[in-house]
Amino acid sequence: MILDDFLYFDSNGLYCKYGQFYIDPQQPVKTAIISHAHADHAIAGNNRVYCTEATAAFMQLRYSKTAAKELNIVAYDKPFVIGDIQITFIPAGHMLGSAQILMEYKGTKYLYTGDYKLQPDTTCEPIEWVQTDVLITESTFADPNVIHPDPVEEIKKLNDIKSNILLGAYGLGKSQRLINLITEYAPQKTILVHHKIMPLNMIYEKMGFSLGKYQLYSRKLMKSQQEYVYIVPPFTFDSYIRATGVKRLFASGWKNLQVNQKDTLFISDHVDWNDILLTIEKTQPKQIWTLHGDGNYLRKHFDDAIFVKLLN
Q1: CA 116 to each of CA 225, 235, 266: distance values in angstroms, whole numbers, following the listed order
Q2: Non-local CB neighbours of 262 within 8 Å, separated by 6+ positions
């Protein structure tokens, strides 16, 4: 039997009262299951945390001793139990260490996707499919009008830009994917990396994910036109608004983050409309619960065929 109140939001975040734990809480809590290491899902100060090895490494780098009082590292596809709920981490394909969270309680399966991606990405574990009774899916781009372009074709656009490029990207996950794509599909480019991104790259390399060819940025290098691509996090990108001699691009699936009309770089680490429909086909849920976006398009699409509930 599907429990309508198995997960719900309270003042701390997404809560499971049957296991007395939170998933990706927004405030520090006693017990947290963390799907991945992006800061909007993994905060500091939780007492007890369950996560994958890579997620733990990124959290420890970012938060040091405040990452968690008790850090429990769990491998993919290895069930563990909290209270009466069996939990399994399933690769989500969003970034290194990202996990879907499969929860089984009294014979019913609830699958929380977290942020996930179906596009190929050699810098993280590819998504795996499991069948579930309830699919709890992010709906960031759950809109029939949003179809992500091929990331390879997007990266190939850089080949037509002969000037140096200032490339804005989120430091964790997106930057490493960009290094890998540029190395393979725009090999004449020399990739320079902001110093805040380098420690994250080292975790990738240590865990066996070779990113490609890159080097630490220096101001001296960018003074010459050598088809450099300087990858910087958002806070640095915004500070270069008056930079001359460079083409400014921002890699994102969001239209509002594209910084000029002529040169865009639509590369998203989230599922689009077709990806969500494929996920539903693969997981075969009896119900769909949505969060982190607008689930109304899915509700309208499935009408009475599958019950769709909006958690937020």
Answers
A1: 37, 24, 17
A2: none
Which residue type, as a one-letter code, is found at position 152? V
Residue identified by tokens 């607008």 is 294
Dihedrals phi, psi of 80, to nearest 5 degrees: -135, 170
Could you tell me the two tokens for 296?
Answer: 């109304």
CA torsion through residues 174, 175, 176, 182, sign: positive
In whole angstroms, give the CA distance from residue 6 to residue 4.
Answer: 6
Q: Which run of H or E residues covers position 70?
A: strand 70-73
Residues 166 and 222: their CA atoms lie apart, in Å, by 10
Q: Which residues contact 55 (CB under 8 A, 6 or more apart)?
A: 34, 35, 36, 37, 42, 97, 98, 99
Domain ranges in the chain are 8-144+270-310, 151-257
Q: How many CB atoms lie within 10 A of CB 243?
A: 14
Helices 198-206 and 174-185, packing angle to 10 deg:
80
**pTM for the complete prediction?**
0.96
- Cα dist from 77 to 112, 117, 155, 157, 253, whole Å: 14, 18, 33, 38, 30
Q: Let me know if domain 151-257 sits in CATH 3.10.180.10.
A: no
**108-112 vs 99-105, strand pairing mode:** antiparallel
For 240-258, the pLDDT digits (tens) are: 777 778 999 999 999 999 9
CATH class for the region spanning 8-144+270-310: alpha beta
Give residue-wise pLDDT tens across range 33-73.
999 999 999 999 999 999 999 999 999 999 999 999 999 99
In this structure, what are the phi and psi dihedrals at residue 248, rounded to the nearest 5 degrees? -95, 125
Q: Percentages helix, strand, coil for the chain, rounded to the nearest 5?
A: 25, 25, 50
